[in-house]
From TrEMBL:
Protein name: Amine oxidase domain-containing protein
Chain spans, region Disordered: 86-109
Boundaries of every Amine oxidase domain copy: 15-451
Source organism superkingdom: Bacteria
Length: 537
């Protein structure tokens, strides 16, 4: 006989693995029998690292930064902060605040690097600071006339506020109509496939957080002051320094998974949950299917789900239709309608290994390469003349992501689309040709002869979207919370555009509830909703 509680965790991404570790650490194996079911063979979800011919791709780009000190401490416990210069630090003579006694990235793999964030906007073949700043470069690129138009447009927005019942009005209130039309309207439509006037303002409140013209001005002024500010004092969108695992975000989650297994967690891959069974109003078991179609039932006392809400509700419904699940009821018809109407945006990343960039480094920031490459981590392509939404330069995230970091540039082009559409279904050869043609038109590379290697990666349900049936999400939350032993966590588990740290925090809150017996789940759902979470310590 055992008095251990059995906990089944659906999903091996940041939320699921955080929950597993929080349950099992510090002798938790004596109290909890933990099983993680991961539907694929990889860990980290969209925070995984893709390996290709000695080079590594970060899916989406992941800055390791949080205003939640629990999360920062958690990360550096898994991968300690560097205690010596990395390859590019040494070569470029960069000086960081090294962690006393920390590992040397040149000789040890389990290490977190300290990185400087540089991101810019590409618009009308000009580079602008990201987020938009009032620097001389910005004013020069815009020109006097456009600057004046944007300035007066912003002044108008200060005195004439629009009702924030959609994302378009949210942006106009903060930046004015002219800057909105230049830098937000086209890009938002490119990202979501919908005009901002059709999207809930909730998305802007989450992603842009406290950023506004006033926020930009305040940040620019405070940077002139001698006092060094901590990350906690800066708007999230303006953070300029972050941590990054030596081999990309997937390295951290692979390490967490390994730590979990060593501490007693049972981790199953190729285990896709297809049914969620219930008894007397509580979840009693799940049925998972392996890659060969074999099904296995797994019972538990507590269930933590990071699977997409749409799939979770359909799995409840499937159990209700299964004659073997005697007590299970199908999900109410109105709840399946809401769940199946929740939209997502999928995306395709095309990795191109190139000999040179045509772009010149006109900044004062030293970079690797011969000639030196631009220092950007991301380049946001706000220009509606291109389908690509964002470029990543992996050399600048970590020199260890690139096999030959001195003589090649490893770029990722991010394309937003929907699973099954024409772009999603393009052959790898065709999508690579398309990506090369866009980089050539943008004058980032000279042409196809510059490309040495390529890789296409398709990512399903990358971005939970805030339109269609999303307005009924509260009703769906109420229904799912009715299962007292079911906790929805993570980006897809809550259908919320969480950052990685927010996903982890939802898992921590859920585990805290399990450990203390707390029945209300408001704390789990309230992560990444409070304004104070974003803007104040």
């Amino acid at each position: 006989m055992t008095d251990k509680q059995s906990v089944v965790i659906i999903g091996g991404g940041p939320a699921g693995l955080t929950a597993a570790w929080e349950l099992i650490k510090d002798g938790g194996a004596d109290k909890y029998d933990v099983t993680v079911l991961e539907g694929t063979r990889e860990f980290g979800g969209i925070s995984r690292t893709v390996k290709h011919n000695g080079n590594r791709m970060d899916i989406g780009g992941h800055r390791f930064f949080s205003k939640d000190e629990r999360i920062m401490d958690w990360w550096k416990t898994v991968l300690p902060l560097q205690g010596a210069p990395s390859y590019d630090d040494k070569k470029l003579g960069r000086d960081h605040d090294m962690e006393p006694g920390g590992p040397d990235p040149e000789t040890e793999d389990k290490v977190m690097l300290k990185r400087h964030r540089v991101s810019r906007i590409f618009w009308n073949r000009h580079f602008f600071d990201y987020p938009i700043s009032l620097s001389p470069n910005t004013l020069k690129a815009m020109g006097f006339k456009l600057t004046m138009v944007a300035g007066f447009s912003y002044l108008k927005s200060m005195f004439h506020k629009l009702p924030e019942d959609n994302l378009e009005n949210f942006y106009i209130n903060r930046f004015g109509r002219k800057l909105y039309s230049m830098f937000f309207e086209g890009y938002t439509e490119k990202l979501w496939g919908r005009h901002p006037s059709q999207i809930s303002a909730d998305w802007g409140a989450q992603r842009v957080k406290g950023l506004s013209i006033m926020g930009v001005l305040k940040n620019a002024f405070q940077k002139l002051l001698p006092k060094k500010r901590s990350n906690a004092e800066v708007e999230t969108s303006l953070i300029e320094e972050f941590w990054y695992p030596k081999y990309g975000p997937g390295q951290l989650w692979e390490t967490v998974e390994s730590n979990c297994e060593a501490a007693g967690v049972k981790v199953l891959t190729d285990a896709r949950v297809v049914e969620v069974r219930q008894t007397d109003g509580a979840v009693s078991s799940v049925v998972y299917e392996d890659s060969e179609g074999n099904r296995t039932e797994l019972s538990g006392d507590q269930f933590i789900s990071s699977m997409p809400v749409k799939d979770l509700v359909n799995a409840i419904d499937a159990a209700g239709a299964d004659p073997e699940a005697v007590d299970s009821k199908p999900a109410p018809a109105d709840m399946t309608e809401v769940a199946n109407g929740l939209p997502y945006r999928d995306f395709v990343t095309v990795g191109l290994l190139v000999k040179h960039l045509k772009l010149k480094n006109t900044t004062s920031i030293p970079t690797l390469g011969n000639p030196p490459i631009v220092p950007d981590c991301w380049i946001y392509v706000q220009d509606p003349g291109y389908k690509v939404g964002r470029l990543q330069i992996f050399n600048n995230w970590s020199p260890y992501l690139v096999k030959d970091v001195d003589d090649t540039v490893w770029i990722g082009l991010e394309y937003f689309c929907e699973e099954g559409d024409s772009f999603w279904n393009m052959s790898e050869e065709d999508v690579t040709k398309f990506a090369i043609s866009e980089l050539t038109r943008m004058r980032v590379i000279n042409g196809p002869d510059e490309v040495i290697d390529s890789h296409r990666e398709r990512v399903r349900k990358a971005y939970p979207a805030y339109f269609d049936t999303y307005e009924h999400m509260d009703e769906l939350i109420e229904y799912l919370d009715g299962f007292g032993n079911l906790y929805c966590v993570g980006r897809n588990g809550q259908h919320r555009y969480n950052n990685m740290d927010h996903s982890m925090a939802t898992a921590m809150e859920a585990v805290g509830n399990i450990k203390t017996g707390k029945t209300s789940k408001k704390n789990v759902w309230s992560v990444n909703t409070e304004k104070s979470y974003h803007e104040e310590k």
